[in-house]
């Protein structure tokens, strides 16, 4: 447990406390894990709209020679048009995943990035060291980040900022939202339609209250954020991937731009292209436990008495109505439909390798 | 018969010649929505303070400890299909197990309702 006194607070800390949130330490911040309860918040997000404080995440601008950033990630930045956003991976020289991040071109002020809270210090240090004088990284410590997610998020946004409501999935731009100058992307971490909104820290509380004044919107904590992203089959850095895992093993080859693959100019290209050609030894898969017992992170996966992998995220999926998990298994056992056993508290329980997402994605693709 | 409580938030109540055991309303509230309960085998011997069951919420798994020493003589099979009973009626229909106590005097040292209320206050 982190020392409570040393925890950082997001600009919405007072609002969380006022709303009755249970605050927990997460990545060095005091964050709301729940307000009304994880199940109710999860279901509200899938039914209407949820507001998440994700201000702990790292935000930065990159200016100068964009090729300096491109050399470290898997996206084709020359092909990233105005108003577009990509999901991409920051790789180390061995092709291991240092972080997953969003990069966008919302306006004329350079690239905008959002990286994971637990990785931001190391990500930015790595980037600065590799950029040298070619490009500049400007960390935006004066900005908060809110996520508005759910099937009604579009309608809520349309009432406040019709222009932003016209974005489609993975588009981004600069807007005036309820009087606040913000950067908005149509994306998120729940599998639902929705937006991520970057706003000046000093204006975040007012904007959050304005969004929460809409009766369709409720505050959602990290607990439901985790169950929502797990049902959506989305990776959590540090759990479902880390520096020892390649994009091929993580089943994230789709995040590797075709042009970059053809040019073989991303970090660890030799290893990763060889894995694409010949297959990797292990693969990230979805797992559906066959009974009601959730299989948590660290649960051993067994076939015919032999250890073949490990669960990296697991819990109960309220929308699925049953336990769901993801993890790594030997590549020859990674096909959906493969029977496995999960060793939950010493007892082998049946499970099956399954396709993700467990709850269908409902992105607004226009 | 009065109900006794542990500092780990289990309750135990003598009913006839057995003791009924569950987790307190406070514990259920702290856990949040219960989605799975792993109960012991009937016939299993448990020692006071030893691991007896596991209760899982959406987010995490938590151990439930035996409040007293004895043998498990019944488990609440209804929790398999309806684990939410633990939230709805933690000190009623959401009971976990029935035990035959081997040292009933252990209950004398446990908290009564007033003491437990002070413990969680």
From TrEMBL, chain A:
Substrate binds at residue 196. Coiled coil: none annotated. This is aminomethyltransferase. Belongs to the GcvT family. It catalyses: N(6)-[(R)-S(8)-aminomethyldihydrolipoyl]-L-lysyl-[protein] + (6S)-5,6,7,8-tetrahydrofolate = N(6)-[(R)-dihydrolipoyl]-L-lysyl-[protein] + (6R)-5,10-methylene-5,6,7,8-tetrahydrofolate + NH4(+). It holds the Pfam family GCV_T_C. Residues 282-358 form the Aminomethyltransferase C-terminal domain. One of its GO terms (biological process) is methylation.
UniProtKB/TrEMBL annotation, chain B:
Keywords: Lipoyl. Residues 18-100 form the Lipoyl-binding domain. The modification N6-lipoyllysine is found at residue 59. InterPro entries: 2-oxoA_DH_lipoyl-BS (IPR003016), Biotin_lipoyl (IPR000089), GCV_H (IPR002930), GCV_H/Fam206 (IPR033753), GCV_H_sub (IPR017453), Single_hybrid_motif (IPR011053). Binds 1 lipoyl cofactor covalently. GO terms for cellular component: cytosol; glycine cleavage complex. Its cofactor is (R)-lipoate. CDD domains: GCS_H (cd06848). GO terms for biological process: glycine decarboxylation via glycine cleavage system; protein lipoylation. It holds the Pfam family GCV_H. Belongs to the GcvH family. The glycine cleavage system catalyzes the degradation of glycine. The H protein shuttles the methylamine group of glycine from the P protein to the T protein. HAMAP family: GcvH (MF_00272). The glycine cleavage system is composed of four proteins: P, T, L and H. This is Glycine cleavage system H protein. It comes from Alkalicaulis satelles. The gene is gcvH.
């Amino acid at each position: 447990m982190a020392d409570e006194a040393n925890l950082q607070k997001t600009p919405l800390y007072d609002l969380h406390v006022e709303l009755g949130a249970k605050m927990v330490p997460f990545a060095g911040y005091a964050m709301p894990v729940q307000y009304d309860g994880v199940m109710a918040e999860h279901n509200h997000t899938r039914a209407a709209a949820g507001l998440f404080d994700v201000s702990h995440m790292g935000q930065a601008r990159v200016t100068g020679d964009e090729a300096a950033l491109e050399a470290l990630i898997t996206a084709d930045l020359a092909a990233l048009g105005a108003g577009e956003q990509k999901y991409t991976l920051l790789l180390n020289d061995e092709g291991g995943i240092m972080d997953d991040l969003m990069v966008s071109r919302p306006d004329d002020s350079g690239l905008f990035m959002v990286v994971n809270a637990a990785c931001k210090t190391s990500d930015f240090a790595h980037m600065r060291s590799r950029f040298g004088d070619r490009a500049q990284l400007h960390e935006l410590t004066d900005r908060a980040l809110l996520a508005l997610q759910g099937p009604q998020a579009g309608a809520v946004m349309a009432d406040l900022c019709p222009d932003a409501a016209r974005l489609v999935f993975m588009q981004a731009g600069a807007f005036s939202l309820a009087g606040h100058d913000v950067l908005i992307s149509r994306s998120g971490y729940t599998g639902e339609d929705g937006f991520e909104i970057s706003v000046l820290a000093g204006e975040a509380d007012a904007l959050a209250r304005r969004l929460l004044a809409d009766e369709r919107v409720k505050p959602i904590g990290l607990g439901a954020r985790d169950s929502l992203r797990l049902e959506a089959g989305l990776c959590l850095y540090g759990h479902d991937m880390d520096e020892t895992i390649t994009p091929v093993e993580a089943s994230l080859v789709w995040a590797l731009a075709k042009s970059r693959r053809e040019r073989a100019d991303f970090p660890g290209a030799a290893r990763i292209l060889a894995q694409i050609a010949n297959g990797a030894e292990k693969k990230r898969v979805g797992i559906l436990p066959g009974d009601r017992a959730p299989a948590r992170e660290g649960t051993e996966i067994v076939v015919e008495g032999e250890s073949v992998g490990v669960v990296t995220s697991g819990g109960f999926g309220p929308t699925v109505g049953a336990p769901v998990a993801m993890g790594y298994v030997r590549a020859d056992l990674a096909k959906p439909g493969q029977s496995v056993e999960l060793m939950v508290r010493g007892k082998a329980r049946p499970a099956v390798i399954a396709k993700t997402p467990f709850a269908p994605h409902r992105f607004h693709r226009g | 018969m009065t109900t006794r409580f542990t500092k780990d938030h289990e309750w135990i109540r003598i009913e006839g010649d057995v003791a009924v055991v569950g987790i307190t309303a406070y514990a259920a509230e702290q856990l949040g929505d219960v989605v799975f309960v792993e109960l012991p085998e009937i016939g299993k011997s448990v020692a006071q303070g030893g691991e007896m069951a596991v209760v899982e919420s959406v987010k995490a798994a938590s151990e439930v400890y035996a409040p007293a020493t004895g043998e498990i003589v019944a488990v609440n099979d209804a929790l398999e299909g309806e684990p939410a009973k633990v939230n709805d009626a933690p000190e009623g229909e959401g009971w976990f197990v029935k035990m035959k106590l081997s040292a009933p005097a252990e209950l004398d040292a446990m908290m009564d309702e007033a003491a437990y209320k002070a413990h969680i206050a």
